[in-house]
Amino acid sequence: MKDPYKENMFKANPYYAQREITGRLAVVLKEKLENRGLQLMKPISRAVCKNDIHELIITDEEVGPGDTVQKIAYAGFFEVTSGGVIVKGNQVSCGSTVLGKIAGFDETHLPNHLNIVISSPKRMDGKELGLRLESEIRIKQIGDDETV
């Protein structure tokens, strides 16, 4: 069976509408790395289930699915309270702070957790951002990102 992403079958983002994913921050992290070597998977989306815990990582590099990410800041881990599908380009916020947009996903630590990589103009870790435990995480579709 063919993977439509690996086979470049999609010419545009097929996600027309999606519900917002919510969660609660379970861990605040503080650390940056200059040479992490995260390999973003080719698919532009990942499903997340209620009660799953996943890691949020921020980069200021211009990257997307299939790319390697070197410069990162660890933001934290969140527990999903309302599952759904996360798609490249979705906006991620923690409380009233917009963290950035989904750049892609790394599966280094699966099945334990998924690394969700967020693109932001400023690479700041969770402590620098002033993130607080139990803050609401929101991941939502904004605009109409047509890129695959």
Helices and strands in order:
Elements: E1 21-28, E2 32-33, E3 38-39, E4 45-48, E5 53-59, E6 68-69, E7 72-82, E8 84-87, E9 91-94, E10 97-106, E11 115-119, H1 126-129, E12 136-140
Parallel strand pairs: 5-11
Antiparallel strand pairs: 1-7, 1-12, 2-7, 3-6, 4-8, 5-7, 9-10, 9-12, 10-11
Describe this structure in words.
With 148 residues, the chain is mainly beta. The chain has one domain. The chain is 3% helix and 43% strand. It has 1 helix and 12 strands, in the order βββββββββββαβ. The chain has one helix at residues 126-129; strands at 21-28, 32-33, 38-39, 45-48, 53-59, 68-69, 72-82, 84-87, 91-94, 97-106, 115-119, 136-140. The strands form 3 sheets. The protein has a 7-stranded mixed beta barrel. A two-stranded antiparallel ribbon has the order 3-6. β9 and β10 (97-106) form a beta hairpin. The chain is globular, with a radius of gyration of 14 Å. The two termini are 20 Å apart.
